[in-house]
Amino acid sequence: MSAVSKMVVKPNAPGGRSATVVALPVKRVPLAVRVRGWTAFAAARVLPPLTVLAVLLLVWEVACSHPGASLPTPTQVMNDSWELIAHPFYDNGGTDKGLGWHLFASLKRVALGYAIAAAVGIALGVLVGQSTFAMRGLDPIFQVLRTVPPLAWLPLSLAAFRDGEPSAIFVIFITAVWPVIINTAVGIRNIPADYVNVARVIRLNGLEYFAKIMLPAAAPYIFTGLRIGVGLSWLAIVAAEMLIGGVGIGFFIWDAWNSSLISDIIVALVYVGLTGFVLDRLVAALAVLVTRGAATS
């Protein structure tokens, strides 16, 4: 049981009266109650996906265990690719590297292309959202260009840059920029009229209106576009790296296919899925932090 603590506050002015501040004891939750809470959380959030995963693995194991099966079973994948799983950062030179290095190379390309797409997309989205003329002039072009598949841009970017590295970054940029532009423009157009009126009453200049009204009000929409964009970026880089070669998770998958290493491909797909999930969660957490919960995770 916590003891009640007291503190006497002395007056600052002469002749004043002192006061006693009593700190109430903090109620500690019993260990048994906390254990029941953790157990309930695990049963509600952790147990269902683990159960579904176990069932899927069992079905996969049974379906592929017969002689002549074209795909390996989960146990065979573990046996064939254990060295790849256990040593993700080996480096034998050239493109003979562990999955960790391939992922790192892909993430560097995604980070650069996505950062450019975020900056350009927010700027163009603000322009389209603020200006009726810009919206009427640019929106039809954006609607057409955003339907072009990401890999369709790769030959054009290779012709323009004459190098695989900037071409892959361009493909990421052109894939991720459209949802950022569109969602930012929607967010700007949906700024409440009361906010605009208040900005006029207190006579905010353009920069103050942008920083104090426009960006905070449109932030949930902007982060929705950024979240869609990061997922598309990850999809695009894997496909682009299959064509440009070099070090990267896409090239690793294509090289494993050419070497008939199906188990390595399955392991790489697991890495790709987990990395994409982590990227999505990171952007969602940043959105909740910046918008103070206005953007849902």
Automatic annotation (TrEMBL):
Coiled coil: none
Role: Probably part of an ABC transporter complex. Probably responsible for the translocation of the substrate across the membrane.
CDD domains to which the protein is assigned, alphabetical: TM_PBP2
Domain of life of the source: Bacteria
Organism: Oharaeibacter diazotrophicus
Record GO cellular component, one term: plasma membrane
Segments passing through the bilayer: 37-60, 111-129, 141-161, 167-188, 209-228, 234-254, 266-290
Membrane topology: Multi-pass membrane protein
Subcellular locations according to the entry: Cell inner membrane; Cell membrane
Lineage: Bacteria, Pseudomonadati, Pseudomonadota, Alphaproteobacteria, Hyphomicrobiales
Gene3D superfamilies linked: MetI-like
Name by which UniProt lists this protein: Nitrate/nitrite transport system permease protein
Domain ABC transmembrane type-1: 103-283
